[in-house]
Amino acid sequence: MMGFVFEDEEWEAVGVVNGTFQAEILRGLLESQGVEVVLSQESAGRWAYALTVGPLSRVEIFVPVRQAQLARQILADYEAGKFAAPGEDDGAES
Question: Whose CA is closest to 32, among 1, 66, 78, 69?
Fold first, then answer.
């Protein structure tokens, strides 16, 4: 993962997901926690919105370098289920 400079600020990739849908969920999560986000996807992948497999489905999540550590912690907490609503489980039926 690489970074870039935008408006005199350095941005860093903090994650890669498959598909725009998952990327938009994570963008919303990060932005709700005060983190600025830019998503980057291969242009052909954007035309096939439902594309969720293969190299065209890759979406990189970029944040300002100054927020990268916070963003990584938020994403780790998300993966660990810390944002799940009370009583939510992994979707398995009882």
Answer: 78
17-21, 29-33, 45-49: segment of lowest average pLDDT: 45-49
How many CB atoms sit inside 10 A of residue 54's CB?
10
**DSSP string for residues in 24-87:** HHHHHHHHHTT---EEEE-HHHHHSTT--SSGGGEEEEEEEGGGHHHHHHHHHHHHTTTTSPTT
Topology of domain 3-79 in CATH is Alpha-Beta Plaits (3.30.70)
Domain layout of the chain by residue ranges? 3-79
- pTM for the whole structure: 0.75
Name the residue with higher pLDDT: 36 or 94: 36
